[in-house]
Amino acid sequence: MKVVSSRAFNQDVSAAKRIAREEPLFVTDRGRPTHVLMSIEAYRGLKGRRESIVDLLAMPESTEFPATRDRWDR
């Protein structure tokens, strides 16, 4: 289990994300744990969920071409 202060977390978020890929990272504020950063896989395992077919088929927001949008808006 890794622990980092909120100040150190804010100064190097990338390092925190690297650590969280391997194990949960506890973020403290004035010495008290306030947040936990973990990978999405670890979170889903904790929640007992796996990726659904919907998750796998989900597409990022599409960028429509204006000509296509205009044609279908009529």
Automatic annotation (TrEMBL):
Which superkingdom heads the taxonomic lineage of this protein's source?
Bacteria
> Which is an annotated Pfam family here?
PhdYeFM_antitox
Q: State the InterPro entries in the record.
A: Antitoxin_Phd/YefM, YefM-like_sf
Entry's family note: Belongs to the phD/YefM antitoxin family.
Q: What does this protein do?
A: Antitoxin component of a type II toxin-antitoxin (TA) system.
Protein's recorded name: Antitoxin
Question: Which organism does this sequence originate in?
Answer: Sphingomonas spermidinifaciens
The top of its lineage is: Bacteria, Pseudomonadati, Pseudomonadota, Alphaproteobacteria, Sphingomonadales
